[in-house]
Automatic annotation (TrEMBL):
<protein>
    <submittedName>
        <fullName>Uncharacterized protein</fullName>
    </submittedName>
</protein>
Length: 44
């Protein structure tokens, strides 16, 4: 018997992946790279 989880990592990852897929649909590869780099900032 499984206990109820408060946080479902698989569900969250699927939601993120689906959102990115929709956004990337109209972008070419260089645009996708730029999109990701603009949103990932190195920790200081």
């Amino acid at each position: 018997m499984r206990s109820e989880k408060e946080f479902d990592a698989v569900k969250m990852m699927r939601k993120i992946r689906d959102k990115l897929s929709k956004e990337f649909k109209s972008m070419n590869y260089p645009e996708q790279k730029r999109y990701i780099r603009e949103r990932i900032k190195p920790e200081t």
